[in-house]
């Protein structure tokens, strides 16, 4: 029996259950969301049958097919199709036609992404490029983790620089000197603590730092 729109307020349809789409669908399911997975490949449909709420083998490039599956009742959709650009674009068009309010789509190039935006995607994701940049930041060993947002803002996990050791954050004045904000401090064998002016930083501490991407990059390079 079909669910009502209100029942599907927190539901997501994921189209394309390959490596990217499958990972998104799996994470959404583990977070407790109702997930409808759609793929033309019967092997992928079978593989995800026991994990997702619903899995259907269908051609998602056709709006009438999406309507029959009740996709118009979903508020969010993720298009995980990447290598077949035509199918990716046609799927976004079909989702827009049936009235899905929030469409996320994977792109394999900047040109592909621009086409997706023009055909109805509200959010375009470049997973390969994003992962490549993240690995580039981590491979030097200066950063333990790195997350960058679209507006040039980043959050970094990095080792505390020597100049901050055995001082409070107020004394080391990292914010005024480097233009970054220390969000928290993690010490070995201790719980994470949110940073305060009187928080003392010791050798071996890990800092969670936020700020403009270029500033946190320069700060992490101090270690």
From TrEMBL:
Pfam families: TrkA_C, TrkA_N. It comes from the Bacteria. Keywords: Ion channel, Ion transport, Transport. One of its GO terms (biological process) is monoatomic ion transmembrane transport. Residues 141-223 form the RCK C-terminal domain. The keyword Plastid does not apply. Residues 9-131 form the RCK N-terminal domain. This is Potassium channel family protein. It comes from Lysobacter korlensis. The lineage of its organism: Bacteria, Pseudomonadati, Pseudomonadota, Gammaproteobacteria, Lysobacterales.
């Amino acid at each position: 029996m079909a669910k009502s729109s209100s029942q599907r307020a927190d539901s997501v349809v994921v189209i394309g259950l390959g490596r990217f789409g499958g990972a998104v669908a799996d994470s959404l399911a583990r977070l407790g969301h109702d997930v409808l997975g759609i793929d033309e490949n019967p092997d992928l449909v079978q593989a995800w049958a026991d994990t997702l709420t619903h899995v259907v083998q269908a051609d998602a490039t056709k709006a009438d097919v999406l309507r029959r599956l009740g996709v118009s009742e979903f508020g969010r959709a993720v298009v995980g199709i990447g290598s077949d650009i035509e199918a990716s674009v046609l799927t976004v068009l079909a989702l827009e036609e049936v009235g899905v309010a929030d469409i996320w789509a994977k792109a394999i190039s900047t040109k592909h992404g621009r086409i997706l935006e023009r055909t109805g995607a509200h959010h375009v994701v470049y997973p390969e490029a994003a992962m490549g940049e993240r690995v580039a930041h981590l491979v030097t060993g200066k950063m333990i983790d790195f997350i960058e947002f679209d507006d040039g803002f980043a959050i970094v996990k990095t080792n505390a620089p020597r100049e901050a050791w055995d001082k409070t954050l107020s004394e080391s004045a990292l914010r005024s000197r480097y233009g970054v904000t220390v969000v928290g401090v993690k010490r070995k064998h201790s719980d994470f603590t949110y940073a305060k002016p009187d928080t003392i930083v010791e050798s071996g501490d890990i800092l969670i730092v936020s700020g403009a991407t270029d500033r946190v990059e320069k700060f992490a390079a101090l270690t």
